[in-house]
Amino acid sequence: MSDLTTTVTRYLAIWNEADADKRAAAIAELFTADAPYIDPLAAVEGHEGVAAVIAGARDQFKGLSFELLGTVDTHHNLARFQWGLVTEPGAEPIAIGFDVAVTAEDGRIKGVYGFLDKVPAA
């Protein structure tokens, strides 16, 4: 497993962490202080911004979890990966996204740029 694959695994674990304090600590450890998170529904910067987006998603999709779909494609300090929002491990995702994470020299995430491939029906 590459370092970037490990980073992506840790990133998705943050989205699945129910405890807000543990989530905040993990964000502070994994992200640079000014890291942006940008997708079609959000554009935030920094630990508090990332935490707010994740908290909002967890509130909107209670009981669901994010899982890695396929393998992480990496080169240099970039990782691209597809994720699914599922009701249980291995279930058909109700939402699918594609993210690109950029890391700093120290391995922390310095930006995440996301796209939504499948969104739940309203």
From TrEMBL:
Residues 8-110 form the SnoaL-like domain. Coiled coil: none annotated. Pfam families: SnoaL_2. It comes from the Bacteria. This is Nuclear transport factor 2 family protein. It comes from Streptomyces huasconensis.
